[in-house]
């Protein structure tokens, strides 16, 4: 059985102190210092950086990782409960993956947590491998989410360089219209459409319509 099942504490917990390293980070929140420290030791033993808190209060003050991360969160905590903290994160537009843990979990709690987007719900005691697997998946999910967000922001920056008319032309190009059809729709000459089309393709850094359609797909999913 893992020390997560109630071993003696070892090591210590630390505040995030505004760390913005690129290395993934796990935040452990549990008022049981022994369990909290054991979790951190297990994660660090497999090369995962982790920090711990006895309540959610420091996290509400903005001490959340800027890099790929996840939160291992006890469902019953002093002050704001794990479930209420999850609600506050969502209300703030923060989407870090959450792995809930509890020694007193029941079906309504787990259903509420999972419906609200929790990645996993573990009942104490649990084995090392369970938490390691859950954290691995959570970090993978958050890394993918951050990459997609960065791609969307880069795309939005490119779109912002377009003139209003170039944006109009791009919409018609993506819809599959030919230059003469776009010219008719916008009341422009075909040569003017060609100029706008060339400009927008250059600004969007695309060499073909297929590439433009694929590249702008994330914006059409918003």
Describe the structure.
- Helix 7 packs across helix 8 (190-203).
- The protein starts with 24 loop residues before the first strand and ends with a helix.
- Helix content is 51%, strand content 11%.
- The chain is elongated, with a radius of gyration of 24 Å.
- The chain contains ten helices and five strands, in the order E-H-E-H-E-H-E-H-E-H-H-H-H-H-H.
- Residues 1-20 have low confidence and may be disordered.
- A five-stranded parallel β-sheet has the order 2-1-3-4-5, with helices on both faces.
- With 222 residues, it is α/β, with parallel strands linked by helices.
- It has helices at residues 33-45, 57-60, 82-91, 107-115, 128-160, 164-174, 179-186, 190-203, 209-215, 217-220; strands at 25-29, 49-53, 69-74, 98-102, 120-123.
Main sheet makeup? 5 strands, parallel
| Count of strand segments | 5
The overall pLDDT, averaged over residues, is 85
Low-confidence stretches: 1-20
Oligomer: single chain
How many helices? The count is 10
How is the largest sheet built, in terms of strand order? 2-1-3-4-5
Task: Give the helix/strand class.
Answer: alpha/beta
- Characterize the overall form: elongated
- Taken as a percent bin, the fraction of beta residues is 5-15%
Helix content range: 40-55%
What's the gyration radius in Å? 24 Å
Order of helices and strands: EHEHEHEHEHHHHHH
Distance between the termini: 46 Å
């Amino acid at each position: 059985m893992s020390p997560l099942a109630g071993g003696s504490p070892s090591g210590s917990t630390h505040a995030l102190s505004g760390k913005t390293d690129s290395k993934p980070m796990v935040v452990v929140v549990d008022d049981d210092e022994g369990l909290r420290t054991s979790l951190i030791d297990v994660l660090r033993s497999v090369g995962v950086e982790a920090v711990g808190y006895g309540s959610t209060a420091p996290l509400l003050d903005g001490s959340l990782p800027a890099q790929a991360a996840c939160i291992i969160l006890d469902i019953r905590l002093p002050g704001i409960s794990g479930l209420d903290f999850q609600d506050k994160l969502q209300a703030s537009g923060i989407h870090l993956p959450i792995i809930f843990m509890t020694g007193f979990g029941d079906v309504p709690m787990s259903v509420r947590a999972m419906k609200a987007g929790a990645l996993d719900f573990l009942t104490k005691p649990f084995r090392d491998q369970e938490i390691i697997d859950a954290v691995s998946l959570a970090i993978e999910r958050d890394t993918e989410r951050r990459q997609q967000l960065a791609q969307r922001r880069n795309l939005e920056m490119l779109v912002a360089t377009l003139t209003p008319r170039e944006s109009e032309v791009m919409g018609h190009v993506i819809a599959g219209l030919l230059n003469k059809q776009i010219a008719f729709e916008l009341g422009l000459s075909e040569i003017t459409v060609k100029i706008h089309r060339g400009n927008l393709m250059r600004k969007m850094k695309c060499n073909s319509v297929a590439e433009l359609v694929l590249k702008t797909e994330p914006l059409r999913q918003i």
